[in-house]
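During the second year of the project, the team shifted from modelling isolated chains to modelling whole assemblies. The rationale, set out in the original proposal, was that interfaces cannot be judged from single-chain predictions alone. As a representative example for this report, we include one of the complexes processed in the last quarter. Its constituent sequences, exactly as entered into the pipeline, are reproduced here:
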Amino acid sequence: MLKYIVSRILVMVPILLGIVLAIFFLLNVLPGDPVSLMMKDKIKPDVIDNLRERMRLNDPWYVRFAVYVANALKGDLGYSYRYHREVKDLIMGAFPNTVKLAFAALAISWGIGIPTGIIAAVRKGKLSDSVLMTFSLAGVSMPIFWIGLLMQYIFAYKLGALPTSGFSTLKHLILPAFVLGWSSSGGIARMVRANMLEVMKHDYIRTARSKGLGETRVVFGHALRNSMLPVVTMMASQVSWLLSGAVVTESIFAIPGLGRISVDAITNRDMPLLQGTVIFTTVLIMLSNLIADIAYGFLDPRIRYQ
Amino acid sequence: MSNLAFVKADSLVKEFSIKPEGISFMRAASVQAVSGVSFEINRGETFALVGESGCGKSTIGRLSIGLLKPTSGSVYIDGIELGSLSGSDMKRMRSKMQIIFQDPYSSLNPRMRALEIVAEPLLAHKVYSSRAQAMQESMHLLEMCGISSSLASRYAHQFSGGQRQRIGIARALALRPQYIVCDEPVSALDVSIQSQIINLLVELQEMLQLSYMFISHDLSVVRYISDRVCVMFLGKVCEIGNTNEIFGSPRHPYTKLLLEAVPKADPTQRKDKDVLLGDMPSPINPPSGCRFHTRCPYKKGICSELEPALEIKGDRSVACHFPFS
Amino acid sequence: MQNQEEALHADTALLRIAAMLRTDKKAAFGAVVIAIFILVALLANAVSPYDPYKIDLANRLGPMSAKHLAGTDSFGRDVLSRIFYGARISLVIGLLPSIIAILIGTALGLVSGYYGGFIDFIIMRLADIVLAFPSLLLALVIMYSLGVSLLNLFIALAVINWGVTARTVRAQTLSLREKEFVEAARACGVSDLAIMFRHILPNCIPTLLVILTLDIPEAILSEATLSFLGVGAEPPTASWGLMVSENKQFLFSQPWVAIAPGIAVLLLVISFNFLGDGLRDALDPFMSE
Amino acid sequence: MQSVLEIKGLTTHIKTKAGTIVPVNGVSLSVLKGEIVGIVGESGCGKSMMAMSVLQLLPAAGKIVDGQALFEGADLLGMNKRQMRSIRGDKISMVFQEPMSSLNPTMKVGKQVSESLILHTKASRAEAKERTVQIFQEVGIPDAQRRYNSYPHQLSGGLRQRVMIGLALALKPALMIADEPTTALDVTIEAQILKLMKGMQAASNTSIILITHNLGIIAELCSYVYVMYAGQIMEQAPVFELFAEPKHPYTQGLLKSLPMLGEHREKLHAIPGSVPNLASLPPGCSFCPRCDIATSACYTLKPGLEKISEARKARCLLYSKGVAL
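Output from the structure prediction step:
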């Protein structure tokens, strides 16, 4: 098991490096010169030269890459042109808001997705299967920005029940978390349902029934654990999906989180901020990937006792 | 004797590495599936390989036609060592040796018609100048194996298990091989179909002078079809010899107990038999000395310490410290 | 067991899909809606009541009426006509990059699974990298780097989405490679290329079909979202996402203008999802292979 | 002697894409106290579906349309779910073919047995565990205390099947249905499991229905045999009589087509054709297309199961009175 965890961590390192390299390449090498892009032609040439020197833009890209990685490991992600602050500080300021949103959304997504998947599988082909799965699928099928606007219109404007934007109280969290959670519950429900149906076909389910167990015991005692295993591995891709969705949700509901920052960084062509945010987000996803892998290892005795 | 041999295997060893998926930098453990096996198969002879799962018999079958490369040791077909051949020579050599598989379902591509399946080797080797000729030959081969030409354009799944096995045999015969590995060819078939396929294999052998390696765990079938037999346990040979002699008076304890274990379709022969105790030892960590000693009821001290050599007496060999006489 | 094996078959796949459409109402609904959207997109200039780009400032933010069935937007353009034209962008962006991504993924997955070893290691780590990115952020970065245009969006979506296909095809190739019919082909001296194209690829096609129907809705949503965020289609293009974004400031006064394009997205995307789920159920034995 | 299970006219339908098939067509059989009854047949003959029908464990597409299954005087087929559940595992238990897939991979094997004990005997966890370890010892699992905490993948195939048998016999049921219990196992392990089943049966006086395709296993274990073909019983007889003098042409063909260990015949007898497809059965006798001695009457008349002697019946026009062949 320890071997398994260590190997998972070791596999992560080259991937992480590859990701940083890919982002770095896209943002630093391809578009030419960020300084001239950023400054357009408003500033005197010697100021530009000075800035280029400070950003080491005259060095070859791989030197800059090495410097960037070295600094990043020390926690220095650069300096935001737009906010005139350390990228690290901006990220740390935004991070807790995104975490709150993501966890609330995750809770809603699982709260809707898992029971929906189980009920739909157990009652396959019945009306409840169809209704529940359509509700879940509708969540994945609507653009997040649109459902966000729709919710604002209904709950904030028409009913006046909830605030449209900002992030100061728990009430502010309800709409964005629901929007984001609903939109990712479909994937969970689909997967739980498909796994459950698959597992229910296995011989050991027949064995459980032949022992005289009731259907509830068969489903919860034997089928559920086995069908939840793949869902655990899906958790990582779900975190990825939630963070993607957070970009839009945070824009709509004016939540000062990571997603909002990255959109700001794009509109303001604030490259160091964009780079820092994207890399930070990706690291988060890799970490959740790792946690999911380890959790899977613990839950599946076939891996635990390898 | 050896100048007659069409297939000769010399101290074959095959190791497989068992590597956890995707973790390339971790040291891989390895399993020795075949540990120093030698044998010869004469022209026109049926040589059977018997043993329980994990004894390495299927691996030997694949080694003997170059589908797997041995870790060490060599295979000679018609006097030519397979390991020495270049890619194009090997391709030419492939037409001399073929294989028939156990599972009639996974051995035929579900997206191809029977005719195309049998024609594929002919087309790959450009045996005929035109596609039409290859198809005609394919039709002929199918008929030879008992598939009527009216069925030839059906897809594999439209045939029954026995018919699929016939198609697999027709494909193996397409390149006019002299040596065919039959890897459990009837194990997946129903009892009433088994004998059809066995009869077909025997007829084809007589007609085309084929040499067979017949791999099976079914001792009754082996007894019926083979001239010589090799009994294997955990990658090693227990004994080799004439089928009637080995079945009539086994010398290795494993052979004897294996024969006794087979349920006989005759209630009057019921008896309380000696059952071979224990499980197959792990090939990752095989027992010291004689690999069979952990299950052998006749074992003595030396068996766990010293590995018995294969003792050759005429055309009968046995690897046991205390063989029955 | 025999039934499952029988299901593993090419020409029954079409029959199974046909049977699925007959029994699965949701999938049939999806297929019909998709067909309607395709027709509308093809015939947009014939079915649209107005020129979608004609600005009519006198009629800004008009309500739903007999003249303008879905009202007019902040420039007085007819919303229904713009939705019809928007179907073109959504379908093209939904279909083409997904198909390209699947072709790339299939090629890489086949090579990776069949040859294994170092090349497999490299391809799979690349796939890991692509899959580890949050797709929307990756698209944002690519659009930032290449500049905002529909063509660049097209490239971004194709580059992002090959990972899943590559992994799935690789897994299938690995299991098919061990099948005895592939061994038989090797024993007959059939070349690697012929084995890949004749024996492995055709058996992956049902899976690819399912992946495609799941990728298309993703791509449609991505286009809408990126356009909404201002890094996709550019004004005055009639793109559904852009239309919502352009009119969101009038949400409380004239909600319909911002909401109508979203309904089009929902309808099209949920239809693809319905169809995809139906296909997956119908072709299930292939998936579990 | 008192019968434990008495099945009368059991008929089961299954809806498939090709239409409704009848895998169990009017099957009647009885199992006496402490007796091992064999049901032999080839793939698709309905033998497993018959067992599943008795315990109402049919797949969703299956439906019992007619018949009775009297167990200790009560009709199993008329029972509601709750009544049926109290029978399953306690009074009637099952052993399946694949011990690996029949055990839950993420639950300790001991727990899978004690779960059943807790359910039916209201034993406490500790009592159930103690009893389970005891059962493991009885079915010959070495180191039973430790094995209680093993997961299925940590056991060999033979041990897994011992766990299954332990599970089946844990509550000393009146009847155990074993569906191909040794088909997935090696010969020497098969012999161990068969010996274990015989021993356990003798000790507890449990009746066993043994379903298999292997005539050898039938001959070694059973006292009475039913031969099934295409959903019907073709012949039924005490085991010695059946093997000594098979009455039905199908049984005769099956026995003749077996290669026997002790002899080397020139050519095997083969039953021509394929195992029947239940979706398209001939109008008359379902075996007639493959029968050596079929006459035109066989293609039109459905033979009944005729009594030949006190203990024997066969479904063939040969034995139907008043039918001219």
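The first strand of chain B starts at residue 5 and ends at 18. The interface with chain A takes residues 20, 22-23, 25-26 of chain B (CB under 8 Å).
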